[in-house]
Amino acid sequence: MRWIIPTVNPEAIAEVREGQNLSPLMARLLVLRGVEQAQEVEPFLHPSLSELHDPLLMAGMKEAVERIGQAVARREKVLVYGDYDVDGTMAVVVLLTALRSLGAEVEAYIPHRLTDGYGMRVPVVEKAAAEGVRVVLSVDTGIREHEVLERARELGVDAIVTDHHQPDTHLPPALAILNPKRADCAYPDKNLAGVGVAFKLGQALLKKFRPELTEKTLASYLKIVAIGTIADVVPLLGENRIIARYGLAGLAQPSHAGLQALLDVAGLNGKEASAGDVAFRVAPRLNAAGRMENARDVIELFTTADAARARRIAERLDNLNQQRQRTEEEILDEVAQIMAREPARAQRYSLVFSGEGWHRGVIGIVAQRIAEKYHRPTLVIGVEQGVGQGSGRSIPRFNLLKALTRSSDLFERFGGHSQAAGFTLPAERIGELERRLETFSRAVLAPEDLEPMLRVDAEIGLEAIDEAFYQDLRDLEPYGLGNPGPVFGARNLLLADPPRILKDKHLKLRVAGGGRAFDALMWRGVGKVPPLARGQQVDAAFTVEQNVFQDRATLQIILKDLLVRD
Fold first, then answer.
1. Based on the structure, what is the number of domains in the chain?
2. Tens digit of pLDDT for each residue in 388-438?
3. How many angstroms separate the CA atoms of 172 and 20, rounded?
4. How would you classify the pairing of strands 413-416 and 420-426?
5. Whether residue 401 sits in one domain with residue 546
6. Does residue 557 contact residue 544 with C-beta atoms inside 8 Å?
7. pTM of the model
8. Are residues 409 and 471 in the same domain?
């Protein structure tokens, strides 16, 4: 990888350190994360629940709270219309819990990824209206559903939208629209996930109708809100940082049967969970339901009080996740075979792969894995009965949605953003899509854009890594978008032990420098580094973690890149 080491003005570091007990390195890390004044240090390192914004600052909140209060008083039926990803399902759980605590008659609808697709559908609203539903409450969806919400209005159903996606120029017809990205919304934090917006509505409802509830009750919601927030990869800054910090702390002592069962199958019950644990161990198990079958199991998991039932659902989600992993690997194996048969593909500026029967629920993850491996914009398409269902992932300097828009005549439908997109097209058009994407990629990308880059926060010596150093890093957590885990570079290290292969794909080695030596792991490192021998000199880019084995904690480094010196 090409290391990018940002330059930081020494005056900025001095400004942040003013009156603070900070090392120069810690101040540098804070400046790189947008903390520019000394008074910003404490709120960043030690966020407080008191810093959560008043939900009534959000446009539409007053109207939404009043209408839901009327629905509760009149015993009107309410339908929460969700989405099948983790953000969407957690948002449903938050509002079901809040509304039922108020005594509302409320049920939820979760679309099926393979049969319903993304977004809201008119037949669902029509069926709900026929069954007496008077309020439809969308979560993590709805901001562009003009047709569906117009039909709801025709049927006399009041729609309340809670969403965080970018709105159209004109908002859809709804009684209330809660979305901090609305142009006319003065809410201070624009980066809430869908579950975060749902939480703000729940917060406002409980404040108005259940004022006797304590801050502890409110904090109990943050476990679920944190899972959805982290899974949706929104910036972990501002309110999201507060949500994630308190939510993760709460996961160490889960009281709900479903959450306990989920953490148990993920190997986290009773342990302190990090944002990485949620992203890579908890969220995939929840996502597996929507990817492989139906996400309703997730709602049942978090709303049942039956511990045995919760355990069965959690084990089912775990099995679905294993099935998802196997399906991904099968497709990746086919892609590897294609690359081996057609080595010229490695010289392309973009990659397109398609296969008969490739599972639609996993092609997005496969596209991400390929894009990361080859550092190329990538489309992966599953073909069924002559129709291609595709998903794409991109690299930083390539706007994937713009590229697809230039070929809009090929698609039956498409959408997304600069780094990820989905689409449907007739299978016979895949070849033409591949040709056009390559032509566009070569027009807008330079060869250096195809080189993977790694941001290195600072260069240090291994002698700097001790327990105090690690505790400073802990204060920066939780890590995520907007606040990435610090990556350090160290030069002229000695390879103390050559690599050992773990589970056929990971590497473990030992590096030494500055009088210190550390175990080093490189996840999926097989094939990423040349043959290495004891005594070779290397440069390493890495993060620092704590490894606990048999109740003994030691520091280790996780390699992001390893360069062999001549």
1. 4
2. 999 999 998 999 999 999 999 999 988 877 888 889 999 999 999 999 999
3. 49
4. antiparallel
5. no
6. yes
7. 0.90
8. no
